[in-house]
Write a structure and sequence with these properties.
alpha/beta, UDP-N-acetylmuramoyl-L-alanine:D-glutamate ligase, single chain, 24% strand, Protein-Tyrosine Phosphatase, Chain A, Rossmann fold
């Protein structure tokens, strides 16, 4: 997307927006923004086609939710907010322009909400949501009461947004459409930089240049944090330091400003010793496993340290970190089979997640139910995605989720499944959503770990897998017509019937 469509952050405030209407309000990003506005006491409405779980909470806060897209939804509205998933010819977009209403991209509306606060913006190819959540919890533990908008919900909190009274505003900064260039952070965190969203950037060099552009928007009185272990992050740090900018790094690398020593990850969690410039900050423990989780948490520790907040607050917050929904989220257990959900769809994050799930599985097998996200990514990274899926013992593969994309001959999951390095008996492509739980129930054994992974709709399948396994345990069989979710030709989840 062309950045010329976006207006840089300025003096516009959330209160200037008047009555706000969000198109596609049920998605995680849009519902979080709606929640933020509602908790600020602003009048909010939104339109949707599906009853997403977040909508009940928005109604409880006083939001008006229209379960259709209609021109009349804009009656009395001052500002219309859309995301990059909404086409410019959407009927509510067309009507908003016809009426002369203020029309803002989600990032522009979010920037208005951040006016007057010190923004902590978290960007990167992987780990944005988890890192943003960790930073938020650390700042909360330190008593700063930050506002935040996260691209996911912190588990056990049930919210991805909050209007706080403190000076900090923590936000997940999305690079996919260049909209993160709107923000003017006080603190910029870049977790890593890898080839992704090449439909927008063309190549890795352009992507890295745009991350550098984002980092240069950081307040001169603030600072930039990158990962010394990530090649893209290291190159970025070297570039920015040569320009005289204040950059701090974290990682296992000996020259990292915050160094992680003696890191260990087990199924029970991850721990490491944090050290800054030869000074020990103590031991950091997380109740969630994965070395990548340790790296994410290190950026939160470094942020607290550089802001002059008590490191003890970071230790306490991370020691109680509950995880983020759709990020290594435990859904339940049925007939001796443990079921998880995981958002990873890029091969690097998939590999890290599956390696961690292997630790959890122990002597059991790892069964992956994967829905690829976007045709261009599946095509361009097919070999890498296939290699990551090869970590599994069993694979159930659904068709690519690519709304608005046209599938060319030879593209999609039928080609991907052939590239996965598993014997034919241990992998299967199912072209029907309803077939996936049945296939898992046929393959899974007590002691196995099953994970639903990939595009947003697959998160709806975890409960269905548990139902199918429960039915198996009782000697019955799950009725696929009663599983409650279907997938349309574009791969979008919708209510059955």
């Amino acid at each position: 997307m062309n950045t010329a469509q976006f207006t840089p952050a300025g003096t516009l405030t959330a209160e200037d927006l008047g009555r706000i209407h969000l198109i596609g309000v049920g998605g995680v990003g849009m519902s979080g923004l709606a929640r933020l506005f509602l908790t600020r006491g602003l009048p909010v409405s939104g339109s949707e086609l599906r009853e997403w779980p977040s909508l009940a909470g928005l109604r409880a806060l006083g939001g008006t939710i229209h379960m259709s897209h209609e021109a009349s939804n804009l009656d009395g509205v001052d500002t219309v907010v859309y995301s990059s998933a909404i086409p410019q010819d959407h009927l509510e977009m067309v009507e908003a322009r016809r009426r002369g209403l203020r029309v803002l991209h989600r990032s522009e509306a979010l920037a208005a909400a951040m006016t007057g606060r010190r923004t902590v913006a978290v960007a990167g190819t992987h780990g944005k949501t988890t890192t943003t959540s960790m930073v938020t919890m650390v700042l909360q533990q330190a008593g700063t009461d930050p506002s935040f908008v996260i691209g996911g919900e912190i588990s056990e909190v049930g919210s991805g947004a909050h209007h706080g009274t403190g000076e900090y505003f923590v936000v997940e900064a999305d690079e996919s459409d260049r909209s993160f260039l709107i923000y003017r952070p006080y603190v910029s965190i870049i977790t890593n930089i890898e080839a992704d969203h090449l439909n927008t950037y063309g190549d890795l060099a352009n992507l890295e240049a745009t991350f550098a552009e984002f980092a240069r928007l950081t307040d001169p009185d603030g600072f930039i944090i990158t990962c010394a272990d990530d090649p893209g992050g290291r190159r970025l740090a070297e570039t920015l330091r040569a320009e005289g900018r204040r950059v701090h790094t974290y990682g296992l690398s000996p020259d990292a400003d915050l160094r992680l020593d003696d890191m260990a990850s087990t199924a029970q969690g991850v721990r490491f010793l944090a050290e800054v410039d030869g000074h020990s900050l103590g031991e950091i423990r997380l109740p969630v496993p994965g070395r990548h989780m340790g790296l994410n948490s290190a950026s939160a520790v470094l942020t607290a340290y550089l802001l002059g907040l008590p490191v003890e607050a970071a230790e306490a917050a991370l020691g109680a970190f509950p995880g983020v929904r759709r990020r290594f989220e435990r859904k339940g257990v049925a007939d001796g089979v443990l079921v998880y959900d995981e958002y990873a769809y890029h091969p690097t994050s998939m590999t890290l997640a599956l390696q961690t799930l292997r630790e959890v599985a122990g002597d059991g097998r790892l069964i992956v139910v994967f829905q690829p996200y976007r045709l261009y990514r599946t095509r361009d990274l097919q070999a890498e995605i296939a290699a990551a899926l090869g970590i599994a013992d069993e694979l159930v593969l659904l068709e690519v989720f690519g709304p608005g994309e046209l599938r060319q001959p030879g593209e999609g999951s039928a080609a991907l499944v052939e590239a996965v390095p598993l014997d034919a008996a241990h992998k299967v492509f199912v072209d029907s959503w309803e077939d996936a739980p049945v296939e898992v129930a046929r393959r899974a054994r007590p002691g196995d770990v099953v994970v639903t992974m990939g595009a947003p709709p697959i998160s709806l399948m975890g409960d269905q897998l548990i139902d199918a396994l429960t039915a198996r345990a009782s000697g019955g069989a799950a009725d696929p017509t009663a599983l409650g979710v279907a997938v349309d030709p574009d791969g979008a989840a919708s209510a059955a019937g």
